[in-house]
Amino acid sequence: MKFVFSVCRIFSFCFFIVYVCSSCTSYLIVNGGHHVPKKVTVYVTGFDTASGRLTLEDISQHSADPFTAYPGQKIRWKISGVKHFLINNLVEKTIKAPRDEVFEKKPHPVNFFSKSWRGSLKDSTDLQGIAIVSDNSGHFIDYIYKIVWRKAGKNRTFDPRIQIR
């Protein structure tokens, strides 16, 4: 009887380790085996109240307009180092058919006191049928969205792009 319990515990422990390791994968495999992060962050690091333009950067402090993303990624927009600034909404700029929506989970505010927004892109099979654009770097979906933001009690709008490869 002890042997059976011992084997069950060992089997359960091995199953748990395999499950934890497989669920903790932090990369997606896309486009012929390229590894890309499962979660990416776009930092809002500055603004121009006259034009409404926002400064968007990736983790390497490179411009994130346009921002390159991949099917299945989770995107987080985080206000970084900007005081008294608020994002009111993140929506698609042009109205299209519902099947043209690229987000599985539409961008939404994160937590109660957070200054971040988060959205999840659909996987590649759900993105089929959406208009594709081509340039010298390949094919992609050019998604133009609108960030409605507030500074000093006044709403402003900025229209950045996401290029989904």
What structural class do the secondary elements suggest? mainly beta
Figure out the total of helices: 1
What is the string of helix and strand elements? Answer: HEEEEEEEEEEEEE
CATH class: Mainly Beta
Main beta sheet: 6 strands, mixed
Proportion of beta-strand residues: over 45%
Globally, the shape reads: globular
Q: Helix amount, in percent?
A: 10-25%
Q: Give the averaged pLDDT, no decimals.
A: 80
Uncertain regions: pLDDT < 50 for 5+ in a row?
A: none
Name the CATH superfamily assignment.
Cupredoxins -  blue copper proteins
Radius of gyration over C-alpha positions, nearest whole angstrom: 20 Å
* Integer count of domains: 1
Number of strands: 13
- CATH names the topology as Immunoglobulin-like
Compute the separation of the termini in Å.
56 Å
Architecture in CATH? Sandwich
Describe the 3D structure:
The protein is mainly β. It has a single domain, classed as Immunoglobulin-like (Sandwich). 13% of the residues lie in helices and 47% in strands. It has 1 helix and 13 strands, in the order αβββββββββββββ. The model has no long low-confidence stretch (mean pLDDT 80).
Pick out its properties.
165 residues, mainly beta, Immunoglobulin-like, 6-stranded mixed sheet, 5-stranded mixed sheet, 13 strands, 13% helix
Describe the structure in brief.
This protein has 165 residues and is mainly β.
Secondary-structure blueprint of this entry?
Elements lengths: L1 H22 L3 E4 L3 E4 L1 E9 L6 E4 L9 E3 L4 E6 L5 E8 L10 E7 L6 E6 L11 E3 L2 E14 L2 E5 L2 E4 L1
Parallel strand pairs: 3-6, 5-13
Antiparallel strand pairs: 1-2, 3-4, 6-9, 7-11, 8-9, 10-11, 11-12, 11-13
